[in-house]
Structure prediction request, 168 residues.
Amino acid sequence: MSKPEKSEVRAYLKRSPLQIEVKFLTELSRSKTFDLVTIDIPKWFSHVHEVKWNHANSENGPSQIGACSERECAIDGKILTEEIVEYVQDQKYSYHADLSRSTLKMPIRNHFGSFTVDAAEYGSLVVWRQYYQVPFWPLASIIRWYMRDKMMKPAVRNLINNFGGKLC
Prediction:
């Protein structure tokens, strides 16, 4: 895998419309919040039981997370393989779900997610976005509801309950 260019990130955004956006505040520093949404996902996202990283192609070197790192999330007995396509320490990262290499299957295409973390007055503001295409429109509202209301928002509420903060 070669280093993703900004144009590659823009290409993902062109292919897939924004489907879900969840904003929340934490009572933690930007750095600690960024670690939670990057490397410590199992601490707050109950569906994710384990995360394994492969940094062999990371633009930051083989021992550090960066663009071109790969992440495998064990979710309820299945594996979701993701490629990090953009990474700015303590600020933002974006990932592409490689469903062709995952045992977790979803009826979506061109899935792209991102987290941005900004300093706020009493902690950090996080924006978690999901971009994807659905194969046919009747599925769109069901998938959006499930991902937002059954996966993302409960995970964020868990993070807030354990580490402090609130939904925006």
Notes: The beta strands are 18-26, 48-54, 70-75, 78-88, 92-97, 109-120, 123-133, 165-167. Residues 6-167 form a domain with the Alpha-D-Glucose-1,6-Bisphosphate; Chain A, domain 4 fold (CATH 3.30.530.20).
